[in-house]
Amino acid sequence: MKEKANYGNWVPEKALYMLFGATIILGIIAVAVQVLLGKTVIAIAVGVLCILTMVMAVYMLICHETFAFGKGNMMAGVHEHLVKHLDWDGEGKLLDIGCGAAALTVRCAKAFPKARITAMDYWGVEWNYAKEQCEKNAKIEGVADHISFQKGDAAKLDFPDETFDAAVSNFVFHEVRTAKDKRDVVKEALRVVKKGGVFSFQDMFSQKALYGDMEKFVKILKEEGISEVHYIGNLEKKLDFIPGFVTTPWMISGMGIIYGKK
């Protein structure tokens, strides 16, 4: 049987194990407190906490299955939406900023088979992704011959100005800890795009705490020489493949896309 690519999930399995494990432990403690100590009030309190933890665990499991490639496919749908907004003929070089496990990278490689793709990520220890996993996924998907992976910082890309014909990024900029102002990460991404090149970036652009007034930011980008910039905010309320139960402040909220031509 052909090996399947492992692209991970926005809800890591590690988090699920921890939540369900905590549910079991709290349940055992609640029973032990009641049976061994006879402390009914404490047992009830721990029991309530156990139930709340179990509810959260089940919710996160449902979200995990909804996001998963080959199951709910919501992550795949989000990537498809991004690529559809990249107005490019696929001739030249493309950069994927914050490639994670290379799911978007592979989608771009299949959508633009003539492109030479560079995918970069910081691959910090807190994430369940690694360069080796990306290379393995690309090989499994049959697109490894025109993708190169490298470690880097999205706040300070290791490329000269106007290197790429196209650039993409998905839910990455807000995670860049080396940049206090996330708008600077967007500008850094645009720096390496050629004049006349195209871009499509999705992130939590509708969260004012991260990006402020996006209409003003779009205006600033145009004033700084970006010839065409489009912004669509609150995508989680507009895309029909995103179910309402994931559109919570702790899951997906304020999703937006900016795309256009430099």
Explain what the structure shows.
- The protein is α/β, with parallel strands linked by helices and 262 residues long.
- The chain folds into 2 domains: 13-67; 74-261, Vaccinia Virus protein VP39 (Rossmann fold, 3-Layer(aba) Sandwich), CATH 3.40.50.
- Helix content is 41%, strand content 17%.
- It contains 8 helices and 7 strands; from the N terminus they run αααβαβαββαβααββ.
- It has helices spanning 13-37, 40-67, 74-84, 103-111, 131-140, 182-191, 208-211, 214-223; strands at residues 93-97, 116-121, 147-151, 164-170, 193-203, 228-232, 256-261.
- A 7-stranded mixed sheet has the order 3-2-1-4-5-7-6, sandwiched between helices.
- α1 (13-37) runs antiparallel to α2 (40-67) and α3 crosses α4 (103-111).
- The longest helix has 28 residues, at 40-67.
- The radius of gyration is 21 Å and the shape is elongated.
- The N and C termini lie far apart (45 Å).
- The relative contact order is 0.12.
- The mean pLDDT is 94.
